[in-house]
Specification:
Butyryl-CoA Dehydrogenase, subunit A, domain 2, acyl-CoA dehydrogenase activity, four-stranded antiparallel sheet, Butyryl-CoA Dehydrogenase, subunit A, domain 3, alpha+beta, Butyryl-Coa Dehydrogenase, subunit A, domain 1, oxidoreductase
Length: 380
């Protein structure tokens, strides 16, 4: 086994590290305070051809791989998880469904502008009564002539305020066994009857965009089906497999950032006449943090590698997302503890990391759902 990154992956890491340190980190605390969405950051990323990093150049992408995407999300999240989740959702939930299931015409019309950064990507799946149970989708669409008429609502949707169109799951009928026929439809966000509401007050990720979608008799052409009618449920499961690599990488980045802050503080903080990094209790905390982060990184990169090889990666993506997210929470908790009272203060950043980390245990399938997926994959 070769654990070395390729030359291209090393270049992506350097580029993203420099970009994150130079462009993302300086305003991260202020954006968190003011809840300001960093439009200018994504405009700069578009100019660097990063918005479609893992997609083919023929669609405006960067021609990279899933490991490069994971590295990019990790480096962004290391300094600002709000930017990390925005980018991860754009690629894995916004772009990926069009690349995986779209017709050639749909790829040209939707994937190309996404990869060019002309629109942010968003995916309408979660509903008030259908979170982990996506089979409980109530948003429905009725065929009327050469149009679909969509009614319903979605919640906790990332990026929709900055998306020109959204792929969303709808019930378009019933199967023979009575279960809902779920279909993904493409809807322009400026369509009549389509409202994007940005009114959530969140624990963390303050400068990311989390919205509610309300659709009242939204009409879209009949050819706005993404993939095949009745296969939306299957399509979103495939999409989430890739998305879990992104959330795992985000959690990894948050953990790395919190660990680095704690290590730096421990070296500088003097108590009882010496640096607290010289106390064994602090050394053991930092050693555990470093070990858990390294294990999480290996798991996230392995899942991404399997995806790049065209091999099945459902189990590994769930394991990576589950372990990395729980590692992020443990590491951030200990980072705050090492900082003592200062860890509770905004200026020391670790409290922001701690608040942001919690979402990684919820988004793209909760930790409980990941364990269900893993249990199913191992034959339970």
């Amino acid at each position: 086994m070769n654990f070395d990154l390729t030359e291209e992956q090393q270049m992506v890491r350097k580029l993203m590290r420099d970009f994150a340190e130079g462009e993302v980190a300086p305003g991260a605390d202020e954006r968190d305070r003011t809840k300001t969405f960093p439009v200018e950051i994504f405009e700069k990323m578009a100019k660097l051809n990063l918005m479609g990093l893992p997609f083919p150049e023929e669609y405006g992408g960067g021609g990279g791989d899933s490991i490069s995407f994971a590295i990019a999300v990790e480096e962004l999240s290391r300094v600002c998880a709000s930017v990390g989740i925005t980018y991860s959702a754009h690629v894995s939930l916004g772009c990926a469904p069009f690349y995986l299931f779209g017709t050639e015409e749909q790829k040209q019309e939707y994937l190309v502008p996404l990869c060019q950064g002309k629109s942010l990507g968003a995916f309408g799946l979660t509903e008030p009564q259908a979170g982990s149970d996506a089979g409980g989708t109530r948003t429905h669409a009725v065929r009327e002539g050469d149009e679909w008429v969509i009614n319903g609502s979605k919640c906790f949707i990332t990026n929709a305020s900055y998306a020109k169109f959204v792929a969303l799951t709808t019930v378009t009928g019933r199967k023979e066994d009575g279960s809902p026929e779920i279909t993904a439809l493409i809807a322009p966000t400026d369509a009549e009857g389509f409202q994007v509401l940005d009114s959530y007050v969140k624990m963390g990720l303050h400068s990311s965009n989390t919205t509610e979608l309300v659709l009242e008799n939204v009409r879209v052409p009949a050819d706005h089906v993404l993939g095949k009618i009745g296969e939306g449920f299957k399509q979103f499961l495939i999409t989430l497999d890739g998305g879990r690599i992104g959330i795992g990488a985000m959690a990894l980045g948050i953990a790395q950032g919190a660990y680095e802050s704690a290590l730096r503080y421990a070296r500088e903080r003097v108590q009882f006449g010496r640096s607290i990094s010289k106390f064994q209790v602090i050394q053991h905390k930092l050693a555990d943090m470093a070990m858990q982060i390294e294990l999480a990184r290996n798991m996230v990169y392995k899942a991404a590698w399997l995806k790049d090889q065209g091999r099945k990666f459902t189990k590994e993506a769930s394991m990576a997302k589950l372990y990395a997210s729980e590692t992020a929470m443990r590491v951030c908790d200990q980072a705050v503890q090492i900082h003592g009272g200062y860890g509770y203060m905004h200026d020391y950043k670790v409290e922001r990391f701690f608040r942001d980390a919690k979402l990684t245990e919820i988004g793209e399938g909760t930790s409980e759902i990941q364990r269900m997926v893993i249990a199913r994959e191992i034959g339970c």
